[in-house]
Amino acid sequence: MKYAVALAGSFLVAILATSVMPYVKVLGVAPDLVLIFAVCWAMIRGQGEALVVVPMAGLLRDLTTSDPVGTSMLALSPIVLLAVIRELRPVESDFLPTLAVVAIASLAYAVVSMAVLTAIGDDVPWGTGMLRVALPSMLVNPLFTVLIYSPMRWLTTRPKRESFGVGSAVQL
Amino acid sequence: MRLLWWTLAVMSLSLFSILLSENRTLDPLQNLSLTIAAPMENGLRDIADPISGFFRGIFSRGDLVRENERLREELERLQIETAATEDAQRRLQELEEALGVKENRPDDVFVVADVIAQDPSGFKRALAIDRGSKDGLDEGMVVLSKSGSLVGVVSLVYEEFAWLRLISDPNNAVNIAVLTGGEEGSEARGVAVGDLRSRLSLEMLPTEAQIQEGDLVITSGLGGNYPRTLLLGSVTSVEEKPQALSKRATMEPAADLSSLDTVLIITNFRPARLEGP
């Protein structure tokens, strides 16, 4: 069930990324909702689930863009490694490490994407790309993280309804 | 250990997928995903228009933005008329000089397409449209705005959908001519290159060319990949370097590339890159 929810969520943010987000440019870049979704899932739900959800989100993103299939899957994979910060708990809050991971993952995503595009023969201006895309996205993506983090955190931590034993029809 | 195996598996799967994708093996899958996503993307793009106004309005007043868009459309229309007039005069002169040479280019045939999505990657300037190979589209075909200025080329074609590469994409290079408006209606030829900014770089222009801000930029037709005299935009700045081998300038596209909703694809013009040897 949780992976079905992740699939639906990934698909929704992938659609939003190609339809709505190009209109929401800040500092010249559109926030990357798929990346933010993948980071939030990894930081809230844990590294174990991220092993499945991160490649799934990358695949859905690739299928809705002009990038070769596999590009985002590869470029988002550092998120799973970065999610180890969750286990280290450097600060009491979960949100601040999430912001840090979003920023670092944005840079990693940009570098891997540019490397893949260069490898397949596209003309990628690395200097301009770093200056006008990678660095601004390190600031812009964390700004929009709260939009996904908050509802995901609420859905994950809300109290579950208890029942009087297995199979009982009576619920509190 | 589990992470190591996972990393190796994801890397292998990704690289294998990229290879398959480059061989066009996964085209049906991508066509299917766009078929599923297109209705939702269309609806969301309609909703996104006011959002766009809001975000632009953060930095500038909304009525100024609307006025700017209206003036820009008007300017594009007038620029096209001016370019057509100037080119017609020069063309007449050329035809008079080369009497007997017959112009045999047929009238253009267009396919109208709606933009359904925009590539979110910051490293590309690409749009998805709701027309594909079943509508006669082929890679390399030339794409115009509603007003008739050049906006890009078809870069990827699926059965029912296609991706366009805009002229502002770093992979796009167009042979252009700047109508310098000199005494004899002269033109300076060069190449327009996209570089991820909203403006394009004009390179390899002759050093002696008298280029000024506002000069119109049109396709030169050299190379055979674009028809002649399609408007691209106008010169916004000129870089003067006395020791340079060629002159550089920047231009602003006539069409607002960030808000295209309908485009025209010329289907009867066969770019040189599509023709066999």
Give me a quick take on this structure:
The complex is a heterodimer of chains A (172) and B (277). Chain A is mainly α.
Shape field of chain B? globular
Helix and strand element order of chain A: HHHHHHHH
Helix content of chain A: over 70%
Structural class of chain B: alpha+beta
- Number of E-state strands of chain B: 12
Helix/strand class of chain A? mainly alpha
Counting DSSP H or I runs of 4 or more residues, the number of helices of chain B is 3
Helix-residue proportion of chain B: 25-40%
Question: Helix count of chain A?
Answer: 8
User: How many whole angstroms does the radius of gyration of chain B measure?
Assistant: 21 Å
Q: What share of the residues of chain A does DSSP label as strand, in percent?
A: under 5%
CATH topology name of chain A: Arp2/3 complex 21 kDa subunit ARPC3
Write the layout of secondary structure elements.
The complex is a heterodimer of chains A (172) and B (277).
Chain A: H1 2-19, H2 33-45, H3 47-63, H4 71-76, H5 78-82, H6 84-88, H7 95-119, H8 126-157
Helix pairs in contact in A: 1-2, 1-3, 2-3, 2-7, 2-8, 7-8
Chain B: H1 2-22, H2 27-59, H3 62-97, E1 110-118, E2 126-129, E3 142-145, E4 150-157, E5 162-166, E6 173-179, E7 187-193, E8 200-205, E9 216-219, E10 231-239, E11 247-253, E12 262-266
Antiparallel strand pairs in B: 1-2, 1-12, 2-5, 3-4, 3-12, 4-5, 6-7, 6-9, 7-8, 8-11, 9-10, 10-11
Q: What features would you describe in this structure?
A:
- The complex is a heterodimer of chains A (172) and B (277).
- Chain A has 172 residues and is mainly alpha-helical.
- Chain A is built from eight helices and no strands.
- Chain A has helices at 2-19, 33-45, 47-63, 71-76, 78-82, 84-88, 95-119, 126-157.
- The two termini of chain A are 23 Å apart.
- The radius of gyration of chain B is 21 Å and the shape is globular.
- Chain B is an alpha+beta fold and 277 residues long.
- In chain B, a hairpin with a 7-residue loop joins strand 6 and strand 7.
